[in-house]
Every structure is written in C-alpha cells, then in structure tokens.
Fold each of these.
Amino acid sequence: MSLFDVFKRAHLPVSRRFSQRPSADEELFDDDFQRKLEMLAMVSRRVFAGRMRAERRTKKKGSGVEFADHRKYVEGDDFRYVDWNIYQRFGKLLVRLYEEEEDLSIYLIVDCSSSMGFGDGKKFDHARRLCAALAYVGLANLDRVTIVGVSDGELVRMPATRGKGRIFKVLNFLRELEASGTTELAETLRMFVAQHKRRGLAVLISDLYDPAGFEGGINMLRFNKFEPFVMHIVDPREARPELKGDVRIYDCETGDERELTVTAAMLDKIGQAWEQYTQSIERFCASRQVPYFAASVDVEFEELILQVFRRGGFLR
Amino acid sequence: MHLTGLPLSTLLALGAVFGALTVALYILKLRRRPVAVPFSRIWQQVLRDKQATTLFSQLKRLLSLLLQLALLALMLLALGDPRTTQNLVEGRNMVVLIDASASMKATDVAPNRLEVAKREVTRMVEGLSGSDRMLVAQMDASIRPLSTMTNEISDLKSGLEAVKASDTRADLRRAMSFALDSLRGLGKAEIIVVSDGALGDLEPIAKELDLSKVKLSYVKVGTSSKNVAITEFSVRRYPLDKSRYEVMLELTNTNDEPANVELTLLGDGNVVDVTEIALRPQESLARFYQDLAGASRTLEASIKLADGKRDDLPADDRAYALMPERRRARVLVVTEGNTYLEAALLLDEYLDVEVIAPAQYPPAQNFDVTIYDAVAPVHDPKTGPALYLAPPAEGSPVELGRSIEMFGFDSWDKKSPFLAFMAMGDIQVAAGHAFKPSKDQKVVGASELGPILVSGTRAGQRFLALSFDPRNSDFVLRVAWPLFVLNTVNAFVEEDTSYISSFRTGQVWRVPAPSTVDIATLIEPNGKRRQVPVKEGRAFYLGEHAGFYQLEAAEAPPLRFAANLSDLQESRIAPASELALGATKAGTVGDFQVGVRREIWLYLLLVVIAVSIVEWVSYHRRWTV
C-alpha cells in the first residue's frame, strides 16, 4: 500500500475504509487510477521541465523571492529593498528587484449533458478521469484549479483550490457529477465568464454535441480573454451505431424523433457525417489557434494525458 | 378455367378475412422500435437526403404489401384447385396387373422381362394426368396389391419397387376378379395387363368374368422363346430297401428347333450322373433312374444346353428333391406272444422292434409306435402312436359294442394310408366286437354289423384300433396282414410310401408337422423365416419359390423338403402378341405423357414459394422497406 493509499483511506469514513466492494464511482477513481495520477505528475515535471520553463512566468518584477536585478533608488522606494551591501562597497543606492510570481488559474469545464452519459456512460467516465488527471497535475504545480460542471444552462462549481492534497476534494466533486440535461455551451459559458473574473486556462472537456453549435461556447471563452483548450471526448462507436431495420430514433437530449429504416448504406453516411462534424470542430479550433485535442474513449486516459503534455499549451 | 376445389364464395370470404389480417399485420409491422441517439444533428444530413426519396420509399413499402397480398391471392387460388376446361374430363381409373410369374424371369430382354415390365409401368405412372388414378398389383399364384387406387406418383413407384418375380404360374382369373372388384362403381375403368402372355387357358376365365364395363389393355413383354425345361422331377426310396432309390425326371423342349441338353444329377452336391439328351422340337422326354444306391438326402437336377449357351429362362433349368429320411423306427409290442405280429414286423429291416409283456409296460425308453396285442393299459405318450389289436373293454380307446361273429370288411376307406395296396373284402373273421366310436373318431373299416377299424387321437397321440383278434380270422394268413402292420407303422412315423419328394410351387402345400402345435417356422430357400399355421398335423403354405425348405415346429426334429416349378405352362415362354378373353380383345394402353401434371394448383404453390423468396430477399435487403 502506497503512502497515497494510506492518505486516501485516512480521509474515508470508517465504514468505507475497509469496504471490499467499491461502488461504481469509487471504481472510477480507484487506487490504480490514483497511482497513475502520481506517475503523471512526476512525468510531467521531468519531461517538460526544460522545454516549458517560464512559459507562463510573468515578466513583472515585484515582491517575489527570486532576485532579478538592481535599479537606482528613487524617492518613495521602500528602504527595505535597498541593497546596503552595494552601498557599502560602491557608495551607490541601488534597490533590489525580485521576479514577481503569478499562479495560473486552470478552469476545467466538464460537459455533464445527457449525451456524455449516452449508452454505457463511457464518455462521461472518460471525461471525469481526464479532468481528475489534469486537475492533479495542475494542483501538483501549485496552480489554482477550478472545476465546473455544465449542463442544462447551469453551472456546478468546485471553488478554486491549490495543492496536491486537495485532490480528494476534486475526486469527490467529480464523483457527484451526473450526466443529464441538454448541452447549451454558449449560454452556460456566458455565465461562466461572468462569474470568473480571473482569466486563465479554460479546458473544455465535452463531446461538443451542442444543437446550437459548438462554436458559440468556444468563442465565448476566447472573447473574454480566457485561453480555451478544447478536449473533445469522442466515442468511435457513435460513428457506426449498431442499428438495423425499422427504427424510430430520438435525440437523448432534445427528444427530437424521426422514423427511418437503417440500412448499411445509411450507416456509412452516418459515419461520414460524424467524421465531418469532428473535422469541422478541429478545423474551427485550428483556424482560431485554440488548442484542440480529440480524446477517444478507446485510448487509456494516461496515454491521452501524456499526449496532451507533448502537445503543449497546458503546463508551464 | 373452372374451380374444382373450394367454391368461389368461400374463397372470396377467406380472401376478405386474410386480406384484412395481412393489412393489419402490415400496419403493425410499421410500428418502429424506438432507439436513442446521442446527437440527432448528425443524422440530419442523411435524413435530409432521404427526404427526397420519401415518395419512392412509400411506393416500395406499398410494393411489399402488394407482394404479400399477391401471395394470399395465389394461395387462395390454389385452394380453389383451378382446372382448364379441357382438363375437366373425368380421369381414368386403372388397375395395372404386373405378371410376376416364373416366365417373367426370362432374359430374352435385358435384364429380364419383369424389369422391362416395371419400366413400362413406371413410364405410365409418370405420365398420369392429374385426374387419373391407378392401382398397381403383382400377379402370380396370388394377387398382391402394391398400392391403393391413387394418383400419388411416389406411392405408385414405391409399390412398383416391391414387385418380385416368383417361381409360380400367373393366376389371371384371380387377378382379373380382383381388378374388377377394385374398379366396381368407378368411371372410365381400365385393366392393364403387363405380361408375356403365358397365362394358360383363357377360355374358362373369359366365361367367368364380365368385362363389358372395363377397358382391357395389354402390354406385351418379351421377344423370343428359346427354352428347355425340367418339367417333372420326383424321387423316392424303395419301401423295403431304403438304401436304394429311383428318380423320375421329365425334360421338355419348348423350342421349335431341336436341342441337345446336358443333364446333371447331384446327390448332396456331388455328381451322381451326367447324361446328354437330344430333344426334338416341342418334345417332352421322361427319364427314370432306377435302383440308384447312396446315402444322399438331397437330389438336384440341372440342365444346360450342350453348346454351352444358356436358354432364356434359367428358372426351370434346375429341380430339387429330398428323399425320405432313412431312420430306424422304434416299435414297441406289448403282448403275451403273437407270432404273426412279430413275423410281420420282421419284414422291414429298418424297424427296431422290442417285445414286452403287458406287466412291463410302460418302459423306460421312448418309442415311435406301440402295438397293443389284446391289452389296453393306460397309454404313456412317450411310447408314441398306438395300434390296438382286440382291445379289452377296460382301457380300450374306442368303446366296445356288442360281440359279433362271422363278419368281414364290408366297407373301408380306400384312401386311408393304413389300408393302402390292400384288398380287405376277402378277410373272414370268426368273432370279435363292434366298436361304438365317438364323434371325433373316424371309422376306417366296418362290417355290416358295426365298425371294426377305428382311428382317432388319445392323449395327444394318434391310434388305430382293430376290434377283433387277427388270429381269430384269416387276416394273418393273407398278404394284407404284413402290409396292414407296416402301413400302420409307416403312417405313424410319416414314412408311408406316398411320401412326396418335392412340392410344386404356386400351390398350397400341406407339409407334415407335429399335431400338437398350431404354428411352425418355415425357412425358405433364401434363408427367410416365416410363421405358418399348422392344422391337424399339416402346415399350410402357399409356396412361391423353388428350392429346399425346412420346417421347424416345437421340439420335433426339423423337416426338410423341396419345391420345384415343374410347370410346362410357365416354361413355354413364347410371348403372346395379343390377349383375348373371349370376345374381349385387349387393346393398347392409352395416353401417358411423362412430366405432364394437369393440376394448376401445384404450379400456383410453386409461384407462391417463388414470390415468398422474392419478398423475403427484398425485405431483408431493404429494397421494399
């Protein structure tokens, strides 16, 4: 048992510490998952330590702890920052300048609409795992991590938090999320930007099945100075559903119905339409310099996270 | 076009009901299964494309319904059994009599006449029209129907496969009677005789049968008449020297040309004699082989043409005979002493005679025959059938009547095996009794004063009782006396001089069997076993095949016997070109067209199946949905 496991168990109620059969949500973030989070955090630091350094550091000099430069004393400067050693050696009044550090705000926006839980709910589970992984990496880097669940035009928010030790709060929050309601990205993210004045990295984790169009939500982030990062959750099975014969299809979110007879030729066309839709999202993001990442449910989440790291744009 | 099945009104009613049901089921079929999709917008583009073809889709759906209604209409039409007007004529009712007699084994046509006859009938069966009906029957010594009166080709064909040739003559009279009975009351009746025409004398048959209401047709089978036959074959042992035997054999050349044949006589499979005999055209030649010695049990005669070729009918080239078994009969004589009796028994060297005093009866051993001389103890069945000479009143198998004097045999059963070759009228008796036989006892000889020789059954064993002491008559001084004693012993042990060495096929055989059983097992020459009934010591069986048979009954030793064709009528295999029964002359068979079935409903059903397949394929390939 790892230290992480001990720590985790200590946070559980007594009745659950020795539970032999974890619930479905517990299985979602089981011990194995949490060990993988630790690994991802270490790998992220080791792999990207050189390349990504200072990418997000501010150029402002201020009251940090890391020395940056000297400048001449002018009236009004705080005497405490005068470098008296320099004055003693050279007789000049110089003031020490330090790099002012700025913590990054990461907003992990999870789509909690019905389409995310469609079928066996694999997309929603995948989205929550990815969210947890990104949150852990962010927390490990002492970033301010905020998680927001969006559905039915409403927000469910976990307040900003920092530090690796808060991961359990994140996990508990994600466990309690449910996939239901409609996808209204533009409206929901308008509320989001209104409530979060502190700009930062906004990772949108969604299947982007928005009847009103995915563009509105992403643009809402862009236009309000957030740095959007689109993590598109895709399930290839939706490109070729196992349907045959006479059926009456209905949208799991909107309930729109349509009668049709599914043939092999029609399934081919459905696959093509799904591909076109996915490609249109990718093209949109590329044209607007929005980092886009397609996360297939068939790929393990740790592999996906590493791909995100390699691609850049998430960690500093 | 006419409907001969269900009437039109019924068909319309059925059509309305099932048509409505079909439409209802069709509508039900259109209720679709609800299926959720994650994002209907993706389907929009595809559905928009489909919108353009909606009208065509509806038409295709309609086509599916129309196909199903067409299926229903075709099935209802099939139930109506439509017929064309020209096919509404009344169908023929035919009885086909296939000659399966011995002459049909002739090989003048390949492979033989019977197979050619079956092919002819098969052709007729396949050419039956829809309204024709046919019954196929095998005609030999008996008549054997092989199908019902039907138009089912498969039934008729399977019946034809069962036709097998026998070694008997064809009984046309019985076959025609059967055919007429089968066709009684049916329209367009026809009797078709498929034969080589070797059917014996037809005049008596023509007089018996009324052929005015049926059409008689004849299909001739066979081409040539080259045949030499064994028409008689018999063998017997000499009564007083059973180590020797004589053979009678008759050969017949049914050809119009002389023939040289090689005759081979086999005893137990070993050659006994080989003779070459020249026969003139149509000549029958009898040959006797006398005083032949040997221990053989089975005799077989075979002939073949001297030039090495075979004649057209191999079935009559062999004949079989079985000689009476040479075994010693054990005879028990219970007497105080009777020189005449003992002297008579000494004449047959194949008798083992044991004489005992009445006090020593019953003995420990078994005997085949017991002779009681003036005594009548309680009969022990293990001492076999019994001859009683002057039985006393107490213990007599036949009730004794009054005493009579100076009498003789005034009447006697001349066919009785006990009295064969005997002249009883000269016998004079001084004193004796008259019998008072019961109803189940048979009087074999009687004087004017009452029965004096009676046969019957006692304790399951046969007996013969003589009411007087032969020593009180001149019977013992006559030749008839030893004959009487030996006839009685032979009759009891079934070795009488009238022993039949072989039976003739096509007749009902009366084979000696133990009188204590009702059923015996007969093993045919081909090894097939069958149960035969036994009545009064005879097993009855209609024999159809030549060869050696064996009869098994209860604990009695198995009895072997032989059977031969020995029928000149069947050996004359020249096919008759025509068949005439009195004034009725058989014509040729009518119209049989292979492959034509005039039943439209069959084709309608085929169309239904085809349309069903089209509907099924089109539905599952989504062409009509």
Amino acid sequence: MTGPAARGDDDDPVAQFSDPDLRHGYAEYPAPQGQYGGGPPYPPEGRAAARQGPRRLLPWIIAAIVVAAAAAVVVSLVH
Amino acid sequence: MSPMTPQQLAERAPTLELINAEITASIARQASSGRNLDTKAVLLIGYAGAAASFLASRSSQHVLAAFAYAAYAAAAGTGIWSAAVRVYQDVPEPRRLFTEYLARSRAETLAALAATRVDAFESNSRKQARKATGWWISLGCLAVGMILMILAVSSAYW
C-alpha cells in the first residue's frame, strides 16, 4: 500500500491525496502539456518575480568578467 | 485539517481544477528556469575553456598562472556539474494514471494529480537549488581565475 495512509499523515491534504506511483523520473525537465497539464508558462507575475533578487546582479558580474578578459588581452598584446 | 470525504472532494472539483492548473504552471516555469540555468552553465564552461586556452598561449608568471588554471578547472568542473543531466520527477505516470484512475471520479483524479505534482515540484526545486548553487560557484571561480590571469599575464612583463 502506498500513499498517505501508509505514511500515517492524515493532516496534510497533499499527503492525503498524493500518489507516489503517479510520479516517474525524467532525465530532463518535463514541460507539462494537456488540458490538466498545461497553463501559461510565463504569467506576468512570474516574469516580474524572476527579475527580483540575485538576477539583477548577473549582468554586472558578466560585464565585469568580459571587461577583465578584454583587459588581459590588451595587456598581453601591448607587452 | 481532517481528511476530506469523497463527497467534499466532489464539491470542490472546480477549486481542485484551479489548483491543479496553477501548480502545473509553476512546474512549467520551474522547467523553463532549469533550462536557462543549463544554458548559462554551458556558457561558463566555454568561457573558462577559452580563457585557459588564451592563458596557455601567453607568457605569464608561472605560480599565478597555475592558480588561474586551477580556478578555471574549478569553474569548468562546477559548471559541468551544474549542467549535468539529472532525473526530475514528472506527473503523471501514464500507465498508473490509466489503470488506477479510470474507475475513480474526476475530483479524486484531480486531487491525486495536484497533490502528486506538489511533491514532484518540491523534489525538483531541491535539485534546481543545488544546480543554481553550482552555477554561482562556477561563476565565482571564473571571476577569480580572470583576476589571476590578468595578474599572471601582466606580471610576466614587470
């Protein structure tokens, strides 16, 4: 027997209804499709949320690395 | 929260449908985010390789160059680890869904799908968090390697 009863967790609705046998491994991220598997991949709030946090630093870090590489090339060519 | 009866479940079928759609959209965003991370990790690996090749073609201070190579190797290693193929959880498993849920009600099936997707999402989130950590470590190693390379190349002429 699998599922919530086997785990003895009756208070958690997820545990109550979850069926581990419905899951299966996928070697890459699966993209859900279908009437009950679809949905907007990028709702506006998702994009807005993605812009928060460390991602704002990313362009600056990449720019710094590119500038450092260019400096190394210039230094080595000048000498 | 007490366990729901089949009757309560049937009454909440529209809500279950909404919950299932929202969870599925979250999984789709998670999948897209994972693919973006893979692309960025491959970029870092390529950059580390190109920078190491450039350093090898130049006269440089040996000790600093050795540390730069080590940083590039670490950047490439963590980048490869970050981009490595992992086994993610997907829902539903087609045979199980057909054989076990054919006789069940729509609400029961939706509840099982939504709840199992929550578990799959949480499992995939943990893997993605580790992948993101590996990418940041790779970026840090690359940045350190670049600094060391500049010092190694420029100090050779001092």
Amino acid sequence: MADKIRVVVAKPGLDGHDRGAKVIARAFRDAGMEVIYTGLRQTPEQIVETAIQEDADAIGISILSGAHEHYFKAIEDLLKEKNAADIILFGGGVIPESDIPRLVEIGAGAIFGPGTTTTTCIDWLKAEVAKKKK
Amino acid sequence: MFEDKQLEEIKAGKERFKASVDKTLAKNPERKEKFTTSGGIPLERLYTPDDINCLDYAKDIGFPGEYPYVRGVQPTMFRGRFWTMRMYAGFATAKASNERYRQLLASGGTGLSVAFDLPTQIGYDSDHPMAKGEVGKVGVAIDSLADMEILFGGIDLSKVTTSMTINAPAGVLLAMYIAVAEKNGINPESLGGTIQNDILKEYIARGTYIFPPKPSMRLITDIFEFCGTKVPKWNTISISGYHIREAGSTAIQEVAFTLADGIAYVDAAIKKGQDPNVFGKRLSFFFNSHNDFIEEVAKFRAARKVWARIMKERFGVTEKSAQMLRFHTQTAGCTLTAQQPMNNIVRVAIQTMAAVSGGTQSLHTNSLDEALALPSDESVRVALCTQQIVANESGITNFVDPFAGSYAVESLTKQIEDGAWEYIKKIDDLGGMLAAIERGYPQQHIQDSAYDYQRSIESGDRIVVGVNKYHIEEDDSARKLLRVDETVGKNQEAELRKMREGRDNVKVKDTLEDIRKAAQGEENLMPKILDAVRVYATEGEICGVLREVFGEYKENVVL
C-alpha cells in the first residue's frame, strides 16, 4: 500500500464553491488514492503545512473566485521556502484560458477547467507521480 | 378528477396502446431503457388522465392567487405585470458597480441585485490578511457607509427595489442601505428590497458563514423583528434553494432542503414571540432554474403548494400573503459550459421559459461567459434581452400557469411534492434542520447527487452538447472577458485608510462597544448596528466585535 498516491484537495481563501473539489476528491479516492480534503477557508500556510505533514505527492486546489493567481503563487512560494517543491501543484475552477500560461510559469503542473472529466485528472496525476518517483 | 366511466375507457385504451407499443418496440427500441428527469425521477412513457386522477382540482390545484397557490400567487400573473428583471451584478469598486447598475436600469432592468465580494460577504475589511487576492473579485467591495453612498449614487432608492446577496453580515449591509436612504431624505418605511440573510444554506452549500448557528439565528430573528416595524416592506430573508441545486442537489432535494430551512426560521422567530402571520409575509424564496424544462415547471408549482401547507397546517397561519411562496429565480450557473459558450444563450433561454412558466416573481439570467469569468457588458445585455424576448415575444406571458392540466406536469408536480415531504419528515425526525446540518445530512445527500451527476456525464448517459458530444474545437481566445486587476484591491485599501483617518474615531469606538454589550445580552442588535454604520464604523470592525462575542463556525467536513 506504500505506493498509494497521496493527494491533498484544498479550497484556498474565501471561496465557498466546493462542488468541484468534493467531486474530484471522491473520484481520486475511488481511483485508489489517499485523499486529504481540507474543507473551506484554508490559508496557503495551512495547505502547505497539511501537505507536508501528510507526506503528500500532490496538492490540488480549486478556485472559482478569480483569485487563482494570488493563491497559486502564494502556495508555490511556500513550497519552495519549505523545501517541498517536489510536491506537485495543480488545480481547477473558473479560470480563463488566457491565465493558464501564467499559472504554469508560477509552477502549476496542470489547470483543469470546467467540463474536464475526472478520468483526465486521475490519469494525469498518476502519470505525474510516476514520473516523479522514477 | 374524472368520471368512473371515462377512466375505465382510458384504462382500457392504455392496455390497447401498450400492446401496440410492444410491437413497435420489438422493431424499434427506445433510445434508452429507462427515462428519468434530470433529477432522477423515473418517467412513464405516456401520461394520461389516469395518472392525475388522485388529484382533486379544487383542493389540490385550485385557482391562482388562492390556496394552495399551485397556479401562482397572483390572480392575473404576467397578464398584470411582468416579473422583476433583476440582474445580479457587482464587481471591483463601488464606482464601477454603480456605473453598471445605471446602465442596467437604463436598458430596462427593473430592480437592482448587488453582488458583494467575498471579504464583504465574510465580514472582513479590504485590508484584512484573509481578503488578500479577493477584493472586488466576485462582487463589489464594501467596507463602510462611504462605499455604499457611492454604490447607490444617482439612484433613487424610493423608486427601485434592491436585492442584496448578503448572509452572515446581512444586518450590517441592510443598516448601510437604510443609512444611505436616510441621508437622501427617504423614509426607511418606503424602502423595498431583499436581503438574502439565509445562513442555513451557507452551512449546507454556499460557504460564506461567519458565526455558529445559534447567534446566527439570533441575528436573523433580530432583523425580522426590526424590519417588522421600521422597514415593513423589506423582504427580510430569501430562503435559497439556488445554491443547494448548484452544489449538485436534485430538484426534489432543492425544494425539500429549502423549505426545511424555512421551517427552521419560522420556528426560531415563533420562539422569540413573533407572529408568523406578520413576519411570514416578508419571507421570500430563491430557486434555481435548471435545464429539464418540464421538471422545473413542476418544481416551482410543487414548492408553492408544500410551503402553503406548511404555513397553514403546521404553523396555523391564516393570513393569505403569509401562506404564499414568493420567489426569485436564477438560471442554473452549473449548466453553463466553457466549451462553445454561445450555446449557453440557448440554455439560459430554456431556463427562463421554465422560470416564467413556473410563475417566478423575479429573475436573473446568467450570461453566456460565466463559466469563464465574470460577465462582460455585452453578454449581460444578451442575458437581459433573453428575459425581454420571453416576456414580450414568446406569448407564454398571456397565460396564467400555462402548463396546468398537462398530465405530465401535474404528475411530476405531485411526485416532487411527495418527494419533498419525505425529506422534510426525515429532517423532522433528525430534530430539525440545525440538527440535520450538524450531522451532515443534507450535505451528504447533495454530494451524492453531485457525484452521480458527474458520473452520468462521464459515462455518456447525460449529454452536454459541446462537452461530451458534438464537440467542436473552437478558438475562443478573442473573447473579451471582464477582469478585475490587483490595483482594485490596493486602491480600495488606500480609500479605506483615508476614510478611517477622516471619521470621528471616538464615536466609532463607542458604538462598537454598544454592539458588544447588546451582543452579550438579548437586546435587538439592529439599532446598535445602525448607529455604528452611521458614524462610518466598517463592516470588518462590526463583524470583528461580533466574532469576539459569538465565535466562528467551523465547517463539518463531509466527504
């Protein structure tokens, strides 16, 4: 069981839209991953702390409030600061396509917009974790 | 509803029909083995008088404007006047939002609906650390009366009605609205509008709670009492199923959980000694209009009926207008697709038709680009025009409750009604909605439905055009999206600092202390909050004091 992927699904900031986060958390769990769902109103510090303590392979954040750039940057900066930049960061929500290059530049591994299937996210995450463990 | 002889003939006809269908099916099977509504209600192939024979027209359906209000709350409905076309809007600063409001009113919008940013909704000033990155993003940033004065500048508050989507700090924003009116010489008694003020659905589905349930319910009943005498035309609450549906519930769950929330509010106010015949008139509701047209029309009709029965039979309400379920509707944001966004115009039009056929009192139509960002000016215009076209061109507004008597619609209305009663009974058994929320009961049911919905899309059982079928690669990069940049937050912080320096800080401190004392006791908080906003105490300062006294709610995470 040591090979189980461990993923933190988090809702940063004040956004209360948690349908997507909960659906993807359940889909990850059904796909055999160990899922830590944080609930709402998490600060970047709390999210990074959770990921480190839980020895997570990845952090997935869901943002529908338009504050995505702020939170991706804050979380990525903290990961670097805490020597945890090997933790994969990805996310989804209402994020304009034109913002994605900037988020990738900050350090997001992937951004999954509305309409993405859970299978797409699962396959991507499995492949990324496999690459990292090689 | 039908004569015995007639029914015998219909039943015999159905048998004969079934035999002929079986022959057809042997050659040409139907598209699916099982047909259901979007919310999973199993559907018959054909509805006939036999399916609605259990209904007694006079008792179960009745006439518009009469108990149980299945056919609408007014006798003439849209033959009298159209619903209020109320577009939810607000972004960035009070000044930018004020411009959009004036533009909406100039292009035929008939009421305002204010979207606040998340810090405002959660009781933080724009310079609070938790507000970082969120100022002005999903709505307008309001820190104090100074912002509110700009927000409604040049708009005659005695002529428009204003709806404010504000919950945990609803009393503070209502107090600011009253203070703006007073400054313009308008008597609060003449003010019309709505505050959402529905904390239970925040715990269940929307997430902008601040305080724990008990003090939150007290704030709500304080508002009921205060408005009863001081702002009598104000709708003191908008009990909302919208967000429950957006979070993934079925149509039946939307009706059931919303009305169960309603029961909890009525119970709380009665416990405070208030009369449901009085405050019941000011309760309003808010529903979602989803894609499944027939199911939605039936849902609105069923909701009116169940609520009328709750008020009359459970609470003994005799005042007609306190038995009526009056509601606002918003088209379903969760049905909008980021792929081929122009298709969303059609979805919104169908949802508009459903809301209107279901007899809504006011409506917000979503814009085609809302799966991508906040709506642009142009897309908002199309959304508003969609309502105007349905109102003026479709012809359905010439009828009162046009789908009444449809065997399918009446059957579904009954099924939704029965399904809602079942949930309400379960919630009663759990000890009411507060106890049910504590146990994660509605949350769990909504999540299960949301997960089923997603799986049905991925399995292809549920088709979403442009997403899992008929997908076309489209270059949408030229679309102009509305953006709120980071300077908005910085400017708002600077204005706030300036405002704090210019006000009488001794008065502010005194009024905040008065709020603290009132919060620790039993006194109605509203007059104290009004005193504080008048001297420009900020929303964050007022909520900060209340946080110290009441504590904060911690989410019961259910997965």
